[in-house]
Amino acid sequence: MAKLALINKDKLRRKLVEKYAPKRAALKEKMSRNSTPEERKEAMLKMAKLPRNANPTRVHNRCSITGRARGYSRMFGLCRQQVRTQASEGKLPGVRKSSW
Question: Could you point out which of 42, 57, 69, 77 has its C-alpha 20 to 30 Å from the C-alpha of 88?
């Protein structure tokens, strides 16, 4: 089980990303469009003032049960151990342990 502090920190990052997403998108639009260099520089400075944790690349996928960061499966939102456990118990719909 991951430390609770790491799980909470990641939840906070997800909230910040959601909160600042429209503002980031608007600033990125100003920077990418055919605008004057002054406008582009101003947009870059405003972007730099946003919190670092508002950047979507700082969010890390974690298992929803254990908080484990490695071996994450996007399809289920679980780590590999939990996918196996849940599948064996029949708790994942449409998933079955193979045997032949």
Answer: 69
